[in-house]
Amino acid sequence: MGFEGLVAPARVPDLYPLIRPLLRALPAEAAHRLTVNALAAGLGSVAAPRPEPDPPSLGQTLWGRHFPNPVGVAAGFDKDAEVPDALLRLGCGFAETGTVTPRPQKGNAKPRLFRLYQDDAVINRLGFNSRGLETTLARLRARPRVGIVGVNLGKNRDSTDAAADYVDGVRRAGALADYFVINVSSPNTSGLRDLQRRDILADLLRRLVEARDEAAAGTPLLVKIAPDLDQAERADIAGVVVEQNRGPSGIDGIVVANTTVARPAGLRSRSAGEAGGLSGKPLFAPSTVLLGEIYRLTGGAVPLVGVGGIASAEDAYAKIRAGASLVQLYTALVFQGPGLIGLIRRGLAELLRRDGFATIGAAVGADHRCAAPERAAQPTAGRLEAAPP
Ligand SMILES: Cc1cc2nc3c(=O)[nH]c(=O)nc-3n(C[C@H](O)[C@H](O)[C@H](O)COP(=O)(O)O)c2cc1C
């Protein structure tokens, strides 16, 4: 696990062939720990070429915040806010810490993380291993407030009041978060995904909007959903978010999607039968279809973050055309290393140019419009009053 390309720079070509098999030979979680430690020690710049400045076409303003490019590392990589700045230095347009739970907890028994090399995929059943919110907050307090760093919030396994845990997260993280993600979609905490049910979700989000307005007015509040939702559940969630958005403040975005409990036919790796959430290449198609549906169901008026199986600039571009304003990836980084972030940024700029889009914003949701790119609707600004396409 971790970035197996982490030590692949041109500057140390003689070490790479030695260390990459070593990373592979390590248990997945140990490899991840090594990677995070290396990033924390400042070795990220050794692993990937220093990123070039972002071309202006990749920049966009969402929720009043400027994102220099739309590419971020997905939640779960930096659960305890150890390396948000190292990720930004690798060229990410934003970083996301978490999922963090209010109190520390160990998560599930090991082994709980599996690399599916033959499928470009990972299965995890980590179960919200977290050092707890206090540790995250201390780290966020200590960092310079440069770049956009979101906080992904969860609930403790033994908590009897899930909503109280999320509200606690929003209140305590307050002004330290540049945005919040409410994670109700991890498959590894029993009952968590039930929070996506219409009435429960509506109540939870109402309480969270209230808490956010009191503790951190103006901080965007996003909800992260599962890819394993049936048609009615998809419509329900879109409906709840749109409904919340009718007032002066509401839910500001949806992250589509978390890992899947489905096991698509054709998986070849030995670990494919492990329990947990599957991520990576097999998740790309279903999560992109879901993204497009959520874009359509919300009228393109709620910014979406497209996640699931992105492994190239073309994949990221497909998410953007399907309706994502921002994209995130994790699993492909495990196999390709952090240089992938720069490749995606460069490739995205090229794809925009090829298709005649002046900016990322103009390409968002392009697949849903019949108009030529030049006449495509402008990007949504972050709230429902923005013109739907
Ligand atoms: C090892 C691992 C841990 C993850 N932990 C979290 C988490 O704590 N919170 C969360 O919202 N998503 C978590 N995810 C899901 C990712 O954020 C992402 O939604 C999913 O992996 C799909 O993207 P990918 O195919 O690019 O990996 C995790 C994924 C992996 C592989």
Domain tally: 2
The string of secondary-structure elements, in order, is HHHEEEHEEEHEHEHEHEEHEHEHHH
Radius of gyration: 19 Å
> In which order are the strands of the major sheet placed?
3-13-12-10-9-8-7-4
Q: In the CATH hierarchy, what is the superfamily of the largest domain?
A: Aldolase class I
* Structural class estimated from helices and strands: alpha/beta
Could you give a short account of the major beta sheet? 8 strands, parallel
- For the termini, the CA-CA separation is 40 Å
The CATH level-2 architecture of the largest domain is identified as Alpha-Beta Barrel
Query: Percentage of helical residues?
Result: 25-40%
Shape: globular
Strand content: 5-15%
Number of strands: 13
Number of helices: 13
CATH first level of the largest domain: Alpha Beta
Bound molecules: flavin mononucleotide
CATH topological fold name of the largest domain = TIM Barrel
Characterization of this structure:
- With 389 residues, the chain is α/β, with parallel strands linked by helices.
- The protein folds into 2 domains: 1-47, no CATH class; 51-375, TIM Barrel (Alpha-Beta Barrel).
- 36% of the residues lie in helices and 14% in strands.
- The protein contains 13 helices and 13 strands.
- It has helices at 16-25, 28-40, 44-47, 84-89, 133-142, 162-173, 198-215, 231-244, 281-297, 313-322, 331-336, 339-355, 360-363, and strands at residues 60-62, 65-67, 71-73, 95-100, 113-116, 121-124, 149-153, 179-183, 221-225, 253-256, 277-280, 304-307, 324-329.
- The strands form 3 sheets. An 8-stranded parallel sheet has the order 3-13-12-10-9-8-7-4.
- Bound molecules: flavin mononucleotide.
- Flavin mononucleotide is lined by residues 74-76, 79, 98-99, 113, 122, 124, 126, 152, 183, 186, 224, 258-259, 279-280, 283, 307-310, 329-332.
- Flavin mononucleotide (FMN) is lined by residues 74-76, 79, 98-99, 113, 122, 124, 126, 152, 183, 186, 224, 258-259, 279-280, 283, 307-310, 329-332.
